[in-house]
């Protein structure tokens, strides 16, 4: 048996999304073509865009379809920087952001941007006051709605209000939050001078059961954003190229399905996660939940196993049929210490001793039981691995 507890990496395709995807794939025609076939494709695309806009609380024209979270983030940050660089040179980058954001900002730094970091709290949160302190005069700011590793939720509304007050354009990375946190672009926006405050928000379809390869960037009508890609005039010129009609239809279907079960499913995941965390603590008394114990993604259990090597734990659990994650990036197949745990004040040793279990739509009690049945032995052996490695 296999037990999948890595839904934050990617979650299984929803049947509704699969059906919408396959049905739309049968439609022949480029949505930019003026003939009847093209117009059929166009209608499907624009219906999907309307549904996506409704789910994300924005206008259809503000939905820019992309290939996923990384592309959305790159498009937003490069585009905002290019359109603002003549006026200001600082980019506000909180610690503990996803690599798609950190590495994009590093690319901007190579092109002359000055990076203004914002420290995380010990629970992994961006403190709105600290964020506000970093904003004055900045070219742009970015922030996670929910931290994808430790699961802590940020007060996105407060961050957006701070950006509006400072007259700085803000991008929100809502990839990990999607499906688990109410996300209305309109409601998150504070009244701001045109082109400032919240202007862009990134999501990825595969985190909620749409196929891998489709995502969206919400771009406010008033945003100043230069295109990253160049070509046709599709999607306000911000993402030129033939549009992915099946991907859009699947994303719309997944968003609708996620919305219809939002409350019930998040309550169910919270219950499963709490049982998982309590059970791990009983099996491994030294284990500690990281991140905010309450204000966190419902399906996220991010656990520090003191003295154990996270990679070894991951391997031993995999042998027992359990798929989890260290949550952090890999370099040549070797996990790096978690930059998020270190930004929360953890040591490098701690940052190598964490595992992230994430639950989703297909998770059941059997998944929790599988972890609880394997974790004590895996911990004993993975702690031994570290002692042996050091002697
Ligand atoms: C918070 C966050 N941002 C961005 C990304 C990148 O998204 P994608 O894998 O769709 O490119 C991820 C993916 O894990 C994520 O969790």
How would you describe this structure to a colleague?
Helix content is 42%, strand content 15%. The protein has 391 residues and is α/β, with parallel strands linked by helices. The chain folds into two domains: 15-259, Aspartate Aminotransferase, domain 2; 261-390, Aspartate Aminotransferase, domain 1 (Alpha-Beta Complex). The strands form four sheets. It has a seven-stranded mixed β-sheet, with helices on both faces. The protein has a three-stranded antiparallel β-sheet with strand order 9-10-14. It has a two-stranded parallel ribbon with strand order 1-11. α2 runs parallel beside α8. The longest helix has 26 residues, at 365-390. The two termini are 36 Å apart. The protein binds pyridoxal-5'-phosphate. Pyridoxal-5'-phosphate binds next to α3.
Throw out a few tags for this protein:
about 400 residues; alpha/beta; Aspartate Aminotransferase, domain 1; 2 domains; globular; iron-sulfur; PyrdxlP-dep_Trfase; transferase; PyrdxlP-dep_Trfase_small
The SSE order reads: EHHEHEHEHEHEHEEHHEEHEEEHHEH
Q: Cα distance, first to last residue?
A: 36 Å
Strand content: 5-15%
- What kind of oligomer do you see? single chain
Helicity range: 40-55%
Strand segment count:
14
Give the averaged pLDDT, no decimals: 95
The parts where pLDDT drops under 50 for at least 5 residues are none
Compute the number of helices.
13
What is the CATH C-level name of the largest domain?
Alpha Beta
Largest sheet: 7 strands, mixed
